[in-house]
Amino acid sequence: MSRPADRLRVAMQKSGRLSDPARNLLKQAGFQFRSSDKDQLFCYGDGCAVDLVLVRDDDIPQLIAENVCDLGIVGRNVLQEKALELRGTAHAGLQELMPLAFGGCRLSLAVPNGLDWRGPSDLDGRRIATSYPELLGEYLQQQGIGAEIVALKGSVEIAIKLGKADAICDLVSSGATLVANGLKETEILLQSEAVLACQNTPFGDGRDALLADFLARIDGVMKVQASKLILCQTGKRELDAVLRLLPDAVAPVISPVWGDDEALNVQALCTSAVTWQRLEAMKSAGARGLMVLPVEKLLA
Ligand code: ATP
Ligand code: ZN
């Protein structure tokens, strides 16, 4: 199916864990939409050349692979599973363009608490239930483990209780669901988060320029989200020690303090997490009056 060359069509989850953060990301990047039908499955870009298609997350990679959509916001777990499934077919060639820093989780193996776990080879000859048969199959092959994969669409965590499997391979975030089902996480197969996905070949038409603009805006939002402005004072002798705790600061501004020859003002834009531990370390190194401010817009 051919796609109009003057608009980008982005697929995202209609409702679920990724839908609100994906909507917010697009909103922060300045894209606005209006629904075109009563089911609200298609949203036209309002004053922008980007349209939205709202679907189940599992359908997103296939829609991209078949050129129905140009881009998608989807979990790396879903994207990689589909990419493996489509390997060697006419629709191969899905790729991850950019991680989006939300929807974080991991695809992990878990076994009953009571099982004495020595390593992945314990799974030899066992049955493993999963909704990710391709990713699990690849892992088992790499590890040289001969286990049977029991492919299930959902409710993987109860497969053991139902006698359908000896272990599971499922998505984990806090681990609370595993604990509630008497399971323990043993191996991580994949660290996942929401990503921007597309095909690995250029469109060869006007969409390439639209994609470049789209990526630049999303990248700008991601940088702002990660950025914090740190303000503090310190003594001249402590300045080096304080700056060593700001390795990600882009050209920090150091200025004198009125009426105090020994003190300096420090202003630093940091591009990675500013944790309490980091602030406490700065205080111990001689920083005073520490203040961390969010950044609203950045134009380099
Ligand atoms: P849909 O109706 O669209 O098929 P779903 O039930 O398959 O929805 P969600 O549960 O909303 O999907 O999860 C969507 C994505 O969120 C997952 O594919 C994964 O990338 C991410 N995610 C983050 N944390 C978790 C978690 N604890 N469990 C499952 N998915 C998670
Ligand atoms: Zn799904």
Automatic annotation (TrEMBL):
Stretches assigned to the ATP phosphoribosyltransferase catalytic domain = 56-218
Report the domain of life of the source organism.
Answer: Bacteria
Record function comment:
Catalyzes the condensation of ATP and 5-phosphoribose 1-diphosphate to form N'-(5'-phosphoribosyl)-ATP (PR-ATP). Has a crucial role in the pathway because the rate of histidine biosynthesis seems to be controlled primarily by regulation of HisG enzymatic activity.
Which Pfam family, an example, fits this chain? HisG_C
Limits of the Histidine biosynthesis HisG C-terminal domain: 227-297
UniProt similarity note: Belongs to the ATP phosphoribosyltransferase family. Long subfamily.
Name the UniProt key words of this record, in alphabetical order. Answer: Amino-acid biosynthesis, ATP-binding, Cytoplasm, Glycosyltransferase, Histidine biosynthesis, Magnesium, Metal-binding, Nucleotide-binding, Transferase
The cofactor required is: Mg(2+)
- Which Gene3D superfamilies does its entry note? 3.30.70.120, Periplasmic binding protein-like II (3.40.190.10)
Task: Determine if Plastid is one of this entry's keywords.
Answer: no
- The reply to whether Glycosyltransferase figures as a keyword in the UniProt entry is yes
Q: Which BP terms does GO give this entry?
A: L-histidine biosynthetic process
Task: Supply the name of the protein.
Answer: ATP phosphoribosyltransferase
- Its source organism is Arenimonas maotaiensis
| Compartment list | Cytoplasm
Cellular component annotations (GO), alphabetically ordered: cytoplasm
Q: Which reaction does it catalyse?
A: 1-(5-phospho-beta-D-ribosyl)-ATP + diphosphate = 5-phospho-alpha-D-ribose 1-diphosphate + ATP
Tell me which EC number(s) this protein carries.
2.4.2.17
Q: Where is this chain primarily localised?
A: cytoplasm
Single GO molecular function: ATP phosphoribosyltransferase activity
The activity regulation comment is: Feedback inhibited by histidine.
What pathway is it annotated to?
Amino-acid biosynthesis; L-histidine biosynthesis; L-histidine from 5-phospho-alpha-D-ribose 1-diphosphate: step 1/9
Gene that encodes the chain: hisG
